[in-house]
Amino acid sequence: MIYINVAKQSNYPISSVKIKKFLQNFFKNHGIVSDAECNVSFVGEEKMKALGKKYYKDNNLHNVFSFVESEISSQGGPALGWKNVTDVIQLGEIVVCFPVVLKEAKMEGKLIEEKALELIGHSALHLLGIHHKE
After folding, report:
1. 133 lies in some domain
2. CATH code, domain with 80
3. Rounded alpha-carbon distances, angstroms, from residue 132 to 44, 61, 71, 97
């Protein structure tokens, strides 16, 4: 089983169920067959800037971050304080800046949920070790 934990404010119009199903299918389609867990958090601009400053040493407002388990552990714990409750492979943590999702969705003529899933899929690739072409 692939466990997906989602944390978001209730006023963010994104379905946690859709995110869970999307990521479960995504990871299965990319060869994850063992029991695994991934955490997804939606945050505001202030929290995203604080994470950028802490982990990436910049002051930029990013749309999404991905943290593999080894990155989180070496920095002194999960980026947003997730407590792993299962004894399975930890894929990592995805952090999405909701206000940036809103802006980008509007600029690109996409639905908010569509843009959020696009960013989550992009970050999930990073968790699997698939990165940008240089």
Report:
1. no
2. 3.40.390.30
3. 25, 19, 18, 20
The encoded tokens of residue 90 equal: 């930890």
Number of independent structural domains in the chain: 1
For residue range 24-45, list pLDDT tens digits in order: 999 999 999 889 999 999 999 9
> What one-character DSSP code corresponds to residue 80?
T
Predicted TM-score (pTM) of the model is 0.86
- Domain assignment present for residue 57? The answer is yes
Written as one letter, the residue type at 61 is L
CA distance 108 to 42: 20
Domain that holds residue 31: 2-127
Phi, psi angles (nearest 5°) of residue 13:
-80, 60
Q: Classify residue 86 by its DSSP letter.
A: S
Judge whether 132 lies within some domain: no
Of the candidates 51, 89, 96, 85, the residue with the CA atom closest to the CA atom of residue 70 = 89
